[in-house]
From TrEMBL:
Residues 175-184 have a biased composition (Polar residues). Component of the lipopolysaccharide transport and assembly complex. Residues 162-174 have a biased composition (Low complexity). GO terms for molecular function: glycolipid transfer activity; lipopolysaccharide binding. Keywords: Periplasm, Signal, Transport. It comes from the Bacteria. This is Lipopolysaccharide export system protein LptA. Belongs to the LptA family. Residues 141-184 are annotated as: Disordered. It comes from Marinobacter algicola DG893. One of its GO terms (cellular component) is outer membrane-bounded periplasmic space. Gene3D superfamilies: Lipopolysaccharide (LPS) transport protein A like domain. One of its GO terms (biological process) is Gram-negative-bacterium-type cell outer membrane assembly.
């Protein structure tokens, strides 16, 4: 197993996910819903679409856990589950996917498990497990056991500061990311 930690000061890899402490409502649409008020669990299945403000989650199944303070945990599974958030605070749009995505309010952590990929503004994080600690602003990525094909490794691509990918529309002065001029 390969473990790599990266602090957010090297380039903000992605924004926090759903804000479980926000006053903004979380909206859920699904084919089926089961609410267990005694346990504080709501289970949604079948083409689940969940949103809070501009943040969106699409999954096969979503389980919301509530406590006396509101939603405390969100577990999403899919093939893959997909989370999207528009650009904010100088960060590019976030597009994240994994077979399992979990948000936990108590430890300020978002965890992407199995086939995890997070893309934002040209930055890419890929691994078996990716944790984002929103309080400490630290990303930790873990690879899976190597099966002889190199797939067990963590992959990260971090764009230089001020560069949000190689899109010429994002580069008004006509220079490539290495500083050379683009051809005419």
């Amino acid at each position: 197993m390969i473990v790599l930690a990266l602090t957010m000061t090297m380039g903000a890899p992605f924004a926090t996910a759903f804000d479980l402490e926000s006053d903004q409502p979380i909206r859920v649409n699904a084919d089926n819903a089961r609410l267990d008020e005694g346990q504080g669990i709501a289970t949604y299945t079948g083409s689940v679409e969940m949103s809070q403000g501009d943040a969106n989650l699409m999954a096969d199944k979503v389980v919301l856990h509530r406590d006396e303070n509101g939603v405390s945990r969100i577990e999403a599974t899919g093939t893959p589950a997909r989370y999207r958030q528009p650009a904010m605070e100088g960060q590019g749009e976030t597009d994240a996917r994994a077979l399992t995505i979990t948000w936990s309010a108590s430890d300020n952590r978002v965890t992407f498990r199995r086939e995890a990929v997070i893309e934002q503004g040209g930055n890419l994080f890929r691994g078996d497990v990716i944790h984002y600690d929103s309080a400490e602003r630290v990303v930790t990525a873990e690879g899976s056991a190597d099966q002889g094909d190199g797939s067990g490794r963590v992959e990260m691509v971090i764009q230089p500061r001020g560069n949000s990918g190689s899109n010429p529309d994002n580069n008004p002065n006509g220079q490539d990311t290495d500083g050379s001029s683009q051809g005419q």
